[in-house]
Each structure stands twice: as C-alpha cells, then as structure tokens.
C-alpha cells in the first residue's frame, strides 16, 4: 500500500516545506498525500504534487487531518510548526499532535526530523 502522508506547514515554514518536498519529490509522487489548504496549494503549484487538500489550518484543516488519523487513514505526519508565532487555532494544532501521540503515528515537527522520517519511509518503500 502507498504510504499515506500528511503535509502541513505554518506560513513561516512553508518555504522549508517546499524545499523538503522538492528533495523527496520522486518518493512523494508514489505516496497518497493530504495537506492543509494553503500548504497543499503551494505543494501542487510549486512542486507539482497531487494532493488531497483539506481546509486551511485556521479553518479546521488540522482537525480534518486529525480525524483521518484517528480513523487510521494517515501513516505519518510532517507538521512544520512555527514556534515563534502565536496561532489563532493553537488548540487545533495541539489536538493534531496529541492525536499522533495517542495513536502512535509518526509526527515530524521540524525539518531535521522530517528528513529522518521521509528517508526512512523511502527506504522502507523500496524493500
Ligand atoms: O495553519 C496550518 C496548520 O496549523 C496550516 O494551514 P495552511 O496550510 O492552510 O496554511
């Protein structure tokens, strides 16, 4: 089965997400990708990925992805959070990260961990 990966980035981290996705584009093309609205739009336009786009984070996108995760529909989350900027939907962000912990779903919240996670998933997919 294709890895099912959620990709989410706050505004100050979106450029990092684009760079990361471009680096793993060949692998990501073979995955089922879900993203919050604006992140997904940029990944589609700038990296050419096919993405299942949910609402923007502040409008419930994190919660939609959290609900998918609870239903067992997401294998890994790359969530590049901005720790320096207050977000209006902080409770939704915490709910998504908590859901990852509750359901033991891998969740990378910074670029270094995202590299480790994507590299591992890519290696596993080649076996
Ligand atoms: O706010 C977000 C995650 O909490 C991301 O939402 P967007 O991808 O729509 O900017």
From TrEMBL:
Belongs to the methylglyoxal synthase family. Keywords: Lyase. SUPFAM superfamilies: Methylglyoxal synthase-like. It catalyses: dihydroxyacetone phosphate = methylglyoxal + phosphate. InterPro entries: Methylgl_synth (IPR004363), MGS-like_dom (IPR011607), MGS-like_dom_sf (IPR036914). Residues 1-127 form the MGS-like domain. Substrate binds at residues 10, 14, 36-39, 56-57, 89. It comes from the Bacteria. Pfam families: MGS (PF02142). It comes from Massilia cavernae. The keyword Manganese does not apply. One of its GO terms (biological process) is methylglyoxal biosynthetic process. PROSITE patterns: MGS (PS51855). One of its GO terms (cellular component) is cytosol. Catalyzes the formation of methylglyoxal from dihydroxyacetone phosphate. This is Methylglyoxal synthase. The active site is at 62 (proton donor/acceptor). GO terms for molecular function: methylglyoxal synthase activity. Its EC number is 4.2.3.3.
């Amino acid at each position: 089965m294709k890895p099912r990966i959620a990709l989410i980035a706050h505004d100050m981290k979106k450029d990092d997400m684009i760079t990361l996705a471009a680096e793993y584009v060949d692998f990501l093309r073979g995955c089922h990708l879900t993203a919050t609205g604006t992140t997904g739009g940029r990944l589609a336009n700038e990296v050419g990925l096919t993405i299942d786009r949910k609402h923007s984070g502040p409008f419930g996108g994190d919660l939609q992805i959290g609900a998918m995760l609870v239903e067992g529909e997401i294998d890994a989350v790359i969530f590049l959070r901005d720790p320096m900027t207050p977000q209006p939907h902080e409770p939704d962000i915490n709910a998504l990260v908590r859901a990852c912990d509750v359901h033991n779903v891998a969740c990378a919240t910074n670029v270094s961990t995202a590299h480790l996670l994507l590299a591992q998933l890519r290696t596993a997919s080649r076996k």
